[in-house]
Structures are given as C-alpha cells and as structure tokens.
Specification:
The protein is α/β, with parallel strands linked by helices and about 180 residues long. Helix content is about 40%, strand content about 15%. It has 9 helices and 5 strands; from the N terminus they run βαααβαβααααβαβ. The chain has helices at about 10-15, 20-25, 30-45, 60-65, 95, 100-105, 105-110, 125-140, 155-165; strands at about 1-5, 50-55, 75, 145-150, 175-180. α3 packs parallel to α4 (about 60-65). The longest helix has 19 residues, at about 125-140. It is globular and about 45 Å long. The termini are close together.
C-alpha cells in the first residue's frame, strides 16, 4: 500500500512565528497563501487515489477539500491525524517557551519531549494513535491501494523518523511525503 501524506497549507499562525509544533489542536483556518499552496499541490498530484483521509482540524479539512477538487472522493476525517497536543503551551511562540532556541535546533529532543506536565501529549502517545490509524487503513483499503492523507508537520515528522530513520530539515506547507507499507 502506498500512502502520500500532505501537510496542510499555511495559516496565520505560521506567519506569526508560532511553530506548528505549538499550534497543536488549535483550530486555525488556511490563509490566502495556504489556499494557493493547496491548489498548487492539487495541480501536481495524481488523481489515482482510492481514498482521502484528513485530520479533523479546519486547516487540514480545507486543504483536503482543495486537493479533492478533481478526484471527487469521499474524505474521512479522523482525530488520530491531529497534531500533537501541547496543553497549556498551545498557541505559544517557540521562543517564549524556549528562549535558548535549543529545541528548534535539535529535532531528536523535540521528538522526545514530554508535554504531559503541561496537560499535553508525549510523542509515544501520538505514535500509538497514528499507527492505530494506519492499521485501520490497511484493513479497510487492501495492499494495492493508494491513499492520500492530509495532516500536520508533527505527524509527518514521526512518519519519516519511524519509517525512514531520519527527519527532513523542513516540512513545507502543502508538501507531499510518500510512504510504502
């Protein structure tokens, strides 16, 4: 099975310097640039997907709807595709939380950090819900399926880390990341 993961288009939080890592479950819509990015990605991706799944947050829903313009497939929204929840740190700028900038420069530290003391999630909990989602997709779709998933940077980072052993330096808005199972 092939699954293409697409990060949602740009939001105003991205512009304000709030890293999506701390946007978490905050439900912010795409801005004009984000809609443009999604349309550009839609023009480049193939139309041979059998199903589209999306995080249930508005920025992903809007991206999925734009990507689905030519395919006209049903979209299944799933909360397991949400970004990591950061509790009381949600919506905060990274430099307000970490004035040293150490977390920004250390991807492994950011993947391991435990946000439970702030009412958020540990990365292991995010991995568990993500891989439960993937198991369900495998059961529903079959080995030869091609699936499109619209989600968040943190989810795509985990996929790269677990399945490819490395994390891309940057995961751009509306970028496509291919994985095979």
């Amino acid at each position: 099975m092939k699954i293409d993961f697409v990060r949602h288009g740009q939001t105003n939080n991205n512009l304000m310097g709030i890293l999506s890592v701390f946007a978490g479950h905050t439900d912010t819509p795409l801005n004009e640039e984000g809609r443009k990015q999604a349309k550009e990605t839609a023009s480049k991706i193939s139309d041979d997907y059998s199903m589209i799944y999306s995080s249930d947050l508005i920025r992903c829903k809007q991206t999925a709807e734009i990507l689905n313009t030519k395919m006209k497939l049903p979209i299944k929204y799933d909360a397991r595709l949400r970004e990591r929840y950061f509790g009381s740190l949600e919506g905060k700028k990274s430099l307000d939380i970490d004035p040293t900038g150490a977390m920004k420069d250390d991807d492994m530290l950011r993947l391991k950090y435990d946000y439970r003391p702030f009412g958020g999630e540990h990365v292991e909990g995010v991995k568990e819900r993500l891989f439960n989602f993937l198991e369900d997709v495998k059961k529903e779709s079959g080995a030869n399926s091609k699936i499109l998933v619209v989600t968040h940077r943190g989810i795509i980072r985990i996929m790269h880390h677990v399945l490819k052993g490395k994390i891309p330096e940057t995961i751009h808005n509306a970028s496509v990341h291919e994985f095979e199972f």
